[in-house]
Input
Amino acid sequence: MDALEELEFDPSKCSKLSMEQKRELVYELSKWSDGATDILQAWSRQDILQILCAELGKERKYTGLTKLKIIEHLLKVVSDKKSLERGTETPPLLDNGERTPKRQRKSDNPNRLLSAANTDTTSMVDGDLIDVTYCKNSACKARLNSEDVFCKRCSCCICRQYDDNKDPSLWLVCCSDPPFQGKSCGMSCHLECALRHEKSGITNNRQDKGLDGSFCCVSCGKVNDLLSSWRKQLTMARDTRRVDILCYRLSLSQKILAGTKHYQNLYGIVDEAVKMLEEDVGPLTGLPVKKARGIVNRLSSGPEVQRLCTSAVDSLDSILSNRVSDIPSDSRYACWKTCQI
Output
């Protein structure tokens, strides 16, 4: 019976071996397609750590990691060293335990691959294995910082949820686009969340906050354009063939401009279209707005409602072409201060 077979039946004998003998056994175990991990599990955590540190050439404690994680890392380090000695193309580990950038883009960097099934995995930082968390959104998978409570790249900063199939026309973004240039946080939120949130300023008392056709970012307070979102809703309503989409987009358009001062003419066009549509499908609030079925052209009011949508979009384009901004700079500052309260 050789040394490996003896250890398999009596793992306690490991403690009697020298460090060099232990390392040699680990090298032999790394050749096994299976069973190596099970044998090493019977070794003490201290023995495994000593061998790993000897292979890396530096002392590391790896606190917070399970023995299994450390064993897997040890076998990987040993396997990589053996590949290098054989002259294969597998690149060596750097001093901090990571691979060269070229190899990292392939299968030797499993963190991104594992995250598809499990958002919690491990990564190497300065030679230490640490827990890493990725966004649960399969379309994003951004790496999250330890202090992040939600993904700032793809999730709403108000409800902190993401959409599986994100429709940009139903989101608002804090940006530096005209007419409200300046530093922005880049956060985004659902349009519906912003319509309900008091700090966004999209309410009937928006004029008291210096807002008119704009909104405050709930995250940082910066004033942003809202008319572009309003235009998107009317464009969708104008071009759709589905009654439920027409109802939903018109309802959003009406809420966006409710209580504005400079855009009452635009609000009046939408309000007329809403009243006309409600005669056919009922109130555009609550469940009916998303459950209405049918084709727009089959509604008696359908063609006329969409004609009004086109008229509203054309009117906005005409206003914007003649006026750079409807909001004075002092009003923007007043909105910023109000949104911080």
Residues 302-322 form the longest helix (21 residues). The chain has 14 helices and seven strands. The two ends are 77 Å apart (CA to CA). The beta strands are 120-125, 128-134, 143-144, 171-173, 188-190, 214-216, 223-225.
